[in-house]
Amino acid sequence: MAKSKADQYWEQYVVKRPGIIVHDGTGFKDRIWENKPVPRWSPVDTGPQVAMAPFLVPSAKSMVEYGVISGEWAQGLRNDPSKIRPHYHDDYEEIFIFMGTNPDDVADLGGEVTFWVGEGDTLKGVVFKEPGAILVPKGTLHFPQIMKNVKRPIVEVIIMCGAGRRIAKVPLKADGSIDESRFKGRPTWG
Length: 190
Known about the structure:
Layout: H1 5-10, E1 19-23, E2 28-32, E3 49-52, E4 63-69, E5 73-75, E6 93-99, E7 112-117, E8 124-128, E9 132-136, E10 142-148, E11 154-161
Antiparallel strand pairs: 1-2, 1-3, 3-4, 4-11, 5-10, 6-9, 6-11, 7-8, 7-10
C-alpha cells in the first residue's frame, strides 16, 4: 500500500528509534542504535537516549535527550573517569528536568538529585527532592549531578534549546590545559 501524502510529509519529523551517545575513545559520538537491547552506560544508568537532534531530523534546531537512573549515580565530577567534566555551552541554554516514576504520587521524585551550577560566588549545589527542573543559561559552568537515596527510577530529560549540535566546553588556560581552578568547590570522584 502506498504512503499517503500526510505520511510522506510527516515522516521527516518523526523519530521512532532514538539515538544514543557512545564514547569511542576519542570523544562522544551520536549513533542510531541498530540492535536490542540498547547498550547501557552502567548498571544504574541507561545513558542518554537522543529523542530529537539534527542527526535524526535534519531540520531540528534543538536537541532532547532522556535517561533513566535506577540507583546511586554521579556524572561530571571534577576528575570523573567517564570523561564528562564540568562544562558550559557558548551557543545554547539547557533545561534539565528530573521526574519520578511513581504513578500513584507524581510529586515523588524517588530519590535526591544535587545539580551543581555556576562558579565562584554563584556556585550552588541545587538539591531536588521532588520533581523539578533547572535552566542553565548559555555560558554557565554546570555539573556534576549526583543522585542519592534512589528508591525508584528517576527520569532525566535534557532540552538543548537552539542547539544544532552538542558542543560542551571545559574551561581552558591560555596554554590549552584545563583550568582546574574554575572547578573549585565542586565534588570530586571517589
